[in-house]
Amino acid sequence: MASIHLIAWNNGRGLSHDIRLLDAALRDLGHTVTITAVPRRSRGLPWRAWAAALRMHARWLTGRGPRRHDLGITLEHVHTAYLPLARRNAFIPNPEWLSRRDRRHLRRFDAILCKTAIARDTFAAQGLPVHLIGFQSIDCRREGVVRDRTFLHLAGASRMKGTERLLDVWRRHPEWPTLHVLQAPSTAIPDRPAAAANLDHRVTYVDDIETIRRLQNAHAFHVCLSEAEGWGHYIVEAMSCGAVVLTTDAAPMNELVRPDRGLLVAAHECGTLNLSALWRFDEAALEACVEHAAGMSDDELRRLGDAARAWYASNQAGFTERLRGAVDALL
């Protein structure tokens, strides 16, 4: 099997999560994986790549490793100094974080491996070689957790999930079921209005992952009103639990959630961030969507949740084969 080099900024958040998932998937396919964690911007530090090349050469001289990796895979930001360490190179972008500097170097890659169809179309339109691999997310389902007909919004530390506008809408509707919001202190507004009776807004860091898993499984509805996504882990994780997801009706969010497996909230484009459009949910559409969800029959709730879970399982299995096909084509 191949020697594969993963190159990415280990940011302790989403990118670190992607590294772990991709590492596991490649190892499951039988490949040997080497991970190089780099600074977010490494263009001024080529000595790091030179040192890595020297270590690799020394291992090759002693018969402990290849002279060059068969394939290098770079995530999110381009680190050009590491490209010579592999015979071929691929890039997995998150379009919303792909800077102008990154875009100048895209033609140095043998392929762009895309997580979403909108990303594939974006890069294909530039004449770049693309493979749609999708991605995968952790299975967060826990058996035996009692699920209530309440709503959950995992804002975390993101500023791109429509959190403040969602809170404003919920405050206007004291008749709605409870919305539980978990938000990091770094992004919460300090002078926010008092919480409504049906609004449980927790501003805290939660280190215990099982606490998060219980929350994900205890709520029938997850509100995921992303302005943009590179993939959408918190959407897919909600679907893995069999929850009904309310998300923005724009790509790539509506690639994950379709009307047969969730609820879509109309939105309008409100700008761009690097190579991604930004989408702002329509407040009247959200109100109608929540009203529909709150009045949903048990049968409809179960049908949508089961369909979400089935899509999750299908996507997980399909990712392995799509990744295999892309790697085999490159090698």
TrEMBL record:
Its protein name is Glycosyltransferase family 4 protein
Gene Ontology biological-process annotations: carbohydrate derivative metabolic process
Identify the domain of life. Bacteria
Glycosyl transferase family domain span: 148-268
Q: Which PANTHER family match?
A: COLANIC ACID BIOSYNTHESIS GLYCOSYLTRANSFERASE WCAL-RELATED, GLYCOSYLTRANSFERASE
What keywords appear on the UniProt entry?
Glycosyltransferase, Transferase
* An MF annotation (GO) of this entry: glycosyltransferase activity
**Pfam families in the record, alphabetically?**
Glycos_transf_1
Q: Does the keyword Transmembrane helix apply?
A: no
The upper taxonomy is: Bacteria, Pseudomonadati, Pseudomonadota, Gammaproteobacteria, Lysobacterales
Q: Which SUPFAM superfamilies match?
A: UDP-Glycosyltransferase/glycogen phosphorylase
Report the family membership: Belongs to the glycosyltransferase group 1 family. Glycosyltransferase 4 subfamily.
Q: Which InterPro entries match?
A: Glyco_trans_1
